[in-house]
C-alpha cells in the first residue's frame, strides 16, 4: 500500500469540516456546535477541531483528506481476520438473504400465530388448538421460525461482538471509543456511534443476550423436536423460557436503539441520516399528502386543508437533507452495492 505522510498544519479545521461533516455544520461556529453541552454536538465539534483528527497514524482519517496512510497502532492479525469475516458477511448476497429471511419470518410468524389461536380450518377435534394435522403444522412453523431467528443471530453476532468490545474498551489493540468514533478509532458520522457510550453498551448487551438465548432456544428445539415432546414437561419449560427471553431481548435492544437514534436525529436533522421512525413518519405524511391532493380537485377541500397542503409542501422543501460526503466504509468491499438504504452499522446489527 502506498503511504503518504500528513502534515497537521495543512489540514485546517475548515478543510476537515467541508470534507467530513455536512455543509450545515461546516458553516457553524464552535459556539453553535457546543451550545447546550449536547453529547452529539460536542463530539462532532471535537471531531472537527481536534488536532488528532488528522495525523499520519490513521488510515481512514487521512484518506478523507490526503489519501491512504497506515493505522497506528497497525491492524493486528486478529483485527485483520475480524475485518475479513465482517467483509464476507457484508456481501450483497447476505444482504439479500437478510431481506428474504425477514419476509419468511413475517409469513411463518403469521402462520404460527393463526395456528396458536386456533384460527384454522384443518381440523377441530377435540379442539381447534389441539388436533391433527394442526399440531404437526404448528410444530413445523415454530421450527422454521427458530431456524430463521438462529440464522439472523449467527450472522449478526460477529458485528454485535465487535461493537460491544469497541464501546466497552476491550479492543486489542485499544482503539479510541469516545462518542463519535468508530471501531477503528476514527471519526464517524454514522448515528450509531453518537449514541452515548453507556446506552450503547446496554443495547449491545441486549442484542448479545438475544443471540445467546436464541442459540439455547435452537438447542432445546433439537432436543425436543416433536410437538408432543415440546409440549410436555420438561420440554415445554425449556423451549418456552428461551423462546420468550430471546424475543424480549431482541425487542428491548431494537426499540432502545430506535429510540436513541430518533432522539439524536430529531435534535440534529441535517447532520444524520433519518432514523427508521422518521422514515415511517415521512412515509405516512407523504401518503396522506397524496391522498388529500387527489381528493381535493374531485370532492373539494376546506380552506384549512388547502392551507395544510401548502404548508406540508413548503415544509418538505425545507426538510430536504443537504448533500453529504460519505466517509469510506473500511469493512465494506468498495464495489459492492447495498441492498437497503440504511446505514451499514444499523443494518449489520440485524443481519441485513
Automatic annotation (TrEMBL):
Q: Where is the composition biased (Basic and acidic residues)?
A: 316-338
Q: Which domain of life is it from?
A: Eukaryota
**Membrane: is it a keyword of this entry?**
yes
A Pfam short name: DUF2985
Region ranges (Disordered): 310-338
Residue ranges annotated as transmembrane are 93-119, 237-259
Q: Which UniProt keywords apply?
A: Membrane, Transmembrane, Transmembrane helix
Q: What is this protein called?
A: DUF2985 domain containing protein
Give the lineage: Eukaryota, Sar, Stramenopiles, Ochrophyta, Bacillariophyta
